[in-house]
Amino acid sequence: MDGVSLLNQYLKSWTPTSLPTSTSISTINPTNTAGLALTLLELQNAIQTETNTISLYFLSRAARGVAASYTIISGQQYLATATATQDFPEVTSAMVNATLSLKQLEWKANLYAINLSVPFNAFFAAMFGVTLICLLGIGFSTKTKYFTICLACGTVLEVIGYVARTLAHYSWSDPNLFLCQIVSLTVAPAFIMAGVYYLLSQMIIIHGEQYAILKPIMVSIIFIFCDVVSLFVQASGGAAAAVSLRSFKDTELGTYIMVGGIGFQVVSMTLFLYFLFDFVYRSFFTANSNIKYSFSTYCSLLFNTKKGRLLRQDLEPFYDVGYKHIRQRSLFNYMPLVIIISVGFIYIRCIYRVIELSEGWRGYLITHEEYIFALDALMVLLTCITYVFFHPGLVFGKQMTAQISVSANKSESAADHESHCGNSRMYNYSKNHSNSPQSSHDEKFIMDQRQKYYNPYFLPTKFSQYNSHSCPSSETYTYSSYNSKLETKSESSWQNR
């Protein structure tokens, strides 16, 4: 089969399947006739040698466009010069069909298969832009680096994505804009979640590492690694699917890769939610045995109600004393709820994306933009806005996030706290003996007793329940009774001498 026959196979006589109630006949400047003639010559040369079906399909589309354009130009010239009005209806009908043919060719080149909404896409681009400025301003003023960088990267990608969709309304066949919005909007939440993962690590340090299954550094490493893997898979799948769609090839492989990447992100976020809820439960109900679990108590602590604030006063002695000043800040007690809500928003978005892409690039969800705005754009925007009001720099305090070391095995604050508790015990013991007349004569004996007290292998068994993180006063019953025994023993030993 020669090239002309193949072209005739793909370029059949075209008539519109439906007629609009009203339409405007296209007009083409007659000076474009020379360009159309050159295009037709190139098509004739290409048809003689081309045998690839996909290439011939595109050649047929180009030929249809040339034929429709010639029809319109010829009709314009006839209507402008002819005097036989009886042929006008036939000529006009041919021009209408040619106009509809050009419209269909243009619509088939639409990579989105919808008319993109300029107002809504521009609105979300503007809102993400304002949110970005706020996040950068707060992060810069409070010197909160890592979290701000993560949120800023995600927000910048959202701005780029919705600006690209706004511009694509006027150029919906531009593959560069299509690729830009796909990749940007697909990977943006991964950067946002990287900041949230790090935030949970800091919350664990502030309360105490004993309230989490994993070490803070492991929380960051595991879930940020999962985010990077998900990001890479989503981006590669999105690029492959977009290129295939551009060339009208099968997009299933790229789509499945994207679905797999987002599905992996959903799985990692599900695991993260488990660790998050476990940490919240442990910090609420395992610190103080007097506080028993109930749903109302859980909600009171989570929503920081009046009852919850009273319960937190009972929990406070059991948390890391080195970060007490952070926990006493007005916004801090809302942070567990804020993290849960923000992760929930991104979780909804990811589940929507999995369902959307599983339907294909011409599925119901992806071709109805209201779902994109409600379940993707709005969810991510609410997450970013939430952290404008509950930015770690505002919640923890200026320059405080830099002092919360996630990479260290043991925070400096905790080490300082342990040293402080030990020094205070030594000071209280010395103070109890300072008024004894024998103390100045047998300082060595007293030091021996002090060393014996601080050796954990010689502590009485009743000290085994002592909570080192609470650093209680030396006036407690257990410590006072032990001091009395030491003092009695010290005095009797001196008298025997």
TrEMBL record:
Keywords: Lipid transport, Membrane, Transmembrane, Transmembrane helix, Transport. It is found in: Cell membrane. The keyword Transport applies. It comes from the Eukaryota. It comes from Candida albicans P78048. Its main location: membrane. The keyword Transmembrane applies. Belongs to the lipid-translocating exporter (LTE) (TC 9.A.26.1) family. GO terms for biological process: lipid transport. This is Sphingoid long-chain base transporter RSB1.
